[in-house]
């Protein structure tokens, strides 16, 4: 999937919950199919069937043949829908064993998945509606030729779409494809930020979290519009962060007239989900790597792919680095402070988690150290801040130390040390 950007506020969160699921579009198809069927049958009775019959454009030679055809199509549609459900359950069972249960949330968010189920459901209900209007003893001229033609055409489309959907389900099991999508999405900057001096005054009002949960998204544009242009505002909880009821959510230099617009702009959900954008995608890459390196799976090549995509994501977020002593601020309104939404806030803890998971695998540790080296070379050429380069070097150093401590063979320890030494040699300094 392409990156869609961060979710903004409660309104978008509620809309996402209604749309990005496995039942909403099929539900519309179930109720819409009888209406479309009635419309097609009405057109058939008024003019369409007679027009086709007069021109010899008919699929059938007798009324009982029409009924047999409709019954066959209903049976085929029921079988296709059952097949798709069965394959879906098998694929998700296998895929989540490698990627984790959070794959389900991303998979349900795919348009093709929802369209496939809705199309299969629509065709089944539509074919039943047409079947109810067929009289097997009626003459050939009284048959619903137009409705049967539409039914046959829909069946062709249905079978073709099933092939596409099954192919997509099969590709879902291909772990590297999902990892590549995660890396592409994670490399895009969800919220443009700039470094700013932290507010040194006193916060006059603190808005606490109204409930426990995870911050799903913040509608910064709405906040800027509703809060005007006066006073500093600090958003204490970044998307993806867990908050307890009563914990500080937003601090204000000047107390707002009402807090309702602010609360509407900050969505809090029950669990972590893909709508949290970059912070979720980065952590999911680490989760996939950690699961792949678990004894039950032991797939270090998947972990290598995750390491590469983490490097790509960090390269994409180079502009979000904020030096010590400064705070990240919203680019379009720097008076809004966004702690935790800069480079360090996005990557520091996930990189520690990756280090802990990769420490027992020298090949993965060496690849990530090499990625840190490549990143430093790339970012140094872009004149990135020295603080960011120092952060990446320290991450590489910590990974080297833990991997060497966990390595059981001297040759592995030597390879890990050489990878880090090559990093220093290529940079031409003794960092």
Automatic annotation (TrEMBL):
<feature type="transmembrane region" description="Helical">
    <location>
        <begin position="146"/>
        <end position="167"/>
    </location>
</feature>
<feature type="transmembrane region" description="Helical">
    <location>
        <begin position="69"/>
        <end position="94"/>
    </location>
</feature>
<feature type="transmembrane region" description="Helical">
    <location>
        <begin position="115"/>
        <end position="134"/>
    </location>
</feature>
<feature type="transmembrane region" description="Helical">
    <location>
        <begin position="21"/>
        <end position="43"/>
    </location>
</feature>
<dbReference type="Pfam" id="PF10011">
    <property type="entry name" value="DUF2254"/>
</dbReference>
<keyword id="KW-0812">Transmembrane</keyword>
<dbReference type="InterPro" id="IPR018723">
    <property type="entry name" value="DUF2254_membrane"/>
</dbReference>
<protein>
    <recommendedName>
        <fullName>DUF2254 domain-containing protein</fullName>
    </recommendedName>
</protein>
<keyword id="KW-1133">Transmembrane helix</keyword>
<keyword id="KW-0472">Membrane</keyword>
């Amino acid at each position: 999937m392409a990156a869609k950007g961060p979710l903004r506020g409660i309104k978008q969160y509620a809309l996402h919950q209604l749309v990005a699921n496995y039942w909403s579009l099929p539900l519309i198809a179930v109720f819409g199919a009888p209406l479309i069927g009635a419309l097609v049958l009405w057109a058939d009775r008024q003019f369409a069937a007679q027009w086709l019959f007069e021109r010899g454009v008919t699929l059938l030679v007798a009324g009982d043949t029409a009924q047999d055809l409709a019954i066959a199509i209903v049976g085929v549609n029921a079988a296709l829908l059952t097949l798709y459900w069965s394959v879906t359950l098998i694929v998700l069972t296998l895929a989540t064993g490698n990627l984790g249960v959070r794959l389900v949330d991303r998979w349900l968010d795919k348009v093709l998945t929802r369209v496939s189920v809705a199309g299969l459901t629509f065709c089944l209900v539509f074919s039943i509606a047409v079947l109810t209007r067929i009289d097997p003893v009626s003459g050939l001229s009284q048959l619903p030729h137009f409705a049967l033609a539409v039914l046959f055409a829909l069946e062709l489309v249905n079978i073709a779409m099933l092939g596409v959907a099954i192919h997509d389900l099969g590709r879902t099991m291909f772990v590297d494809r999902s990892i590549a999508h995660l890396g592409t999405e994670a490399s895009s900057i969800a919220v443009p930020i700039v470094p700013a001096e932290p507010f040194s005054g006193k916060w006059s009002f603190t808005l606490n979290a109204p409930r426990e949960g995870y911050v799903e998204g913040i509608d910064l544009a709405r906040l800027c519009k509703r809060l005007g242009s006066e006073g500093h505002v600090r958003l204490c909880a970044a998307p993806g962060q867990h908050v307890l009821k009563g914990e500080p959510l937003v601090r204000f230099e000047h107390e707002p007239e009402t807090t309702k617009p602010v609360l509407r702009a900050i969505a809090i959900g029950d669990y972590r989900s893909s709508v949290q954008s970059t912070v979720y995608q980065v952590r999911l890459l680490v989760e996939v790597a950690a699961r792949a390196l678990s004894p039950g799976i032991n797939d270090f090549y998947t972990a290598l792919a995750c390491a590469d995509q983490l490097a790509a994501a960090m390269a994409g977020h180079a502009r979000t680095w904020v030096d010590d002593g400064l705070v990240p601020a919203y680019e379009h309104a720097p008076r809004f402070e966004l702690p935790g939404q800069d480079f360090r806030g996005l990557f520091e803890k996930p990189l520690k988690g990756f280090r802990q998971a990769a420490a027992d695998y020298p090949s993965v540790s060496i690849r990530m150290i090499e990625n840190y080296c490549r990143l430093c070379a790339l970012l140094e050429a872009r004149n990135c801040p020295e603080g960011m380069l120092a952060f990446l070097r320290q991450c590489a150093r910590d990974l080297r130390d833990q991997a060497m401590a966990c390595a059981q063979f001297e040759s592995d320890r030597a390879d890990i040390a050489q990878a880090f030494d090559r990093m220093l040699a290529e940079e031409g300094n003794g960092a």
